[in-house]
Amino acid sequence: MNQHVFDAQIWEHAPDEPGSWHFLTLPLEVAEDVALEAGPRGGFGSIRVEVTIGSSTRRTSLFPDSKSGTFVLPVKKPVRQANSLSAGDTCEVSLSVGEPD
After folding, report:
1. DSSP three-state, residue 68
2. pLDDT, tens digit, 9 for 90 and up, residues 59-92
3. Are the C-beta atoms of residues 62 and 71 closer than 8 Å to each other?
4. 55, 82 contact by CB (below 8 A)
């Protein structure tokens, strides 16, 4: 598996709504590489990945974002809490396509 390391800013989908989803957007060059590595996609065009943000590693999915032409990654509350992250913060992300061996 290729590992992609990049910085991205966390953003909130609907800041005025309680429990709003938080995401980060992959840089376009990373998204292009990931799309090539992924092969056939899952539901909604999703791509299975393993991602590390700070001290948190998890398996999740990227989702295509037609507006930006790249992918977005959901950042769940336990990951944000464990790493003291909020909307507007920039974090380092390490991402690999697929399931680890």
Report:
1. coil
2. 999 999 999 999 999 999 999 999 999 999 999 9
3. yes
4. yes
